[in-house]
Amino acid sequence: MRSGFISVALFSAAVFTVLLGIASSSLVAAEVRDDEGTLVSLERPATRIISLAPSLTELVYAAGAGEQLVGAVEYSDYPAAAARLPIIGRFDLLDTERILELQPDLVIAWQSGNPRTSVNRLRQLGLTVYIAEPKSLASIPSHIERLAQLAGTEALARQALVAFHENLARLRNQYSGLPALQVFYQVWALPLITAGGNELINDIIKLCGGNNVFADIKLVAPKVSREAVLVRNPEVIIASGMDIERPEWLDDWTRWSSLEAVAKENLYFIPPELLQRHTPRALLGAQQMCEQLELARRKR
């Protein structure tokens, strides 16, 4: 009799445990890991999102969640609708009070760009924060997928994901197997800043069949000397600058006629927002770079 009672009790406990698990899981609408390994959970899809970097704003739109954005930092200017969002400061100077006023249920933060104390403060105030640190071409669709899960917009994100993978495959098939060129990418002039080996731009140079002459530097946006550039003697120099205009300082290299890039007139420009933002538009910048490198190959 007692053994029967125990069996019934154990069975009831097991059923209760299963039901409790089902009830608990039903409270979680989305659950993903961010780039710090933190498990970000939401009881319902995010409907009030704030982005703390222009590139992250673009990724939210790419994920089909643009209508859920209620705030963004300065220079969030793509797509056009992003420019109409309430401003909550700069990426490096956040307005915590304004963020709280907008009552977000999800904040998308930039790991290496936003002040850590400010991001930690948002968490202490009870906000759910997803930390992103896109570094490569592969990270772009990964973040689109995760943001779509958090916003409940997976169906809307599918088109952007398919287009990204198709365009990436097309560029890889067309250019990555061509004879390699030695490429110097110049972010800025004073100080002289380039792209290291662990960055999106390095990925794009490789995609286009080039070798980044500073790929051995594993820092983000490392400073280099003019002498180091002269020693590595790139065949191509590609610059960005601040906006859509070709920077005047790109032509400063013409003073060194011994540089192969100068001798062959391989000094090119690509707008920074097409190469330095980790968004689907990076493939537009990649297309331009691949075409420029192909022009340089024909001069060999």
Q: What fold name stands as the CATH topology of the largest domain?
A: Rossmann fold
The level of helicity is 25-40%
What percentage of the residues does DSSP assign to strands (E)?
A: 15-25%
Q: How widely separated are the two ends?
A: 93 Å
Using only C-alpha atoms, the radius of gyration works out to 24 Å
Q: Quickly give the structural class.
A: alpha/beta
Q: What's the CATH superfamily of the largest domain, by name?
A: Nitrogenase molybdenum iron protein domain
DSSP helical segment count? 10
Number of strands: 13
Q: Please summarize the sheet with the most strands.
A: 5 strands, mixed
Indicate the overall shape.
elongated
Number of domains: 2
Report the order of strands and helices. Answer: HEEEHEEEHEHEHHEEHEHEHEH
Low-confidence stretches: 5-26
CATH 2nd-level architecture of the largest domain: 3-Layer(aba) Sandwich
- Main CATH class of the largest domain: Alpha Beta
Mean pLDDT: 91
Structure description:
The chain is an alpha/beta fold. The protein is built from ten helices and 13 strands. It has helices at 2-26, 54-62, 96-101, 116-124, 139-151, 154-175, 200-207, 226-232, 260-263, 282-297, and strands spanning 30-33, 39-42, 49-51, 69-72, 89-90, 93-94, 106-110, 129-132, 181-188, 193-194, 210-212, 236-239, 267-269. Strands 9, 10, 11, 12 and 13 form a five-stranded mixed β-sheet that branches. It has a four-stranded parallel β-sheet with strand order 4-3-7-8, sandwiched between helices. Strands 1-2 form a two-stranded antiparallel ribbon. It is elongated. The relative contact order is 0.11.
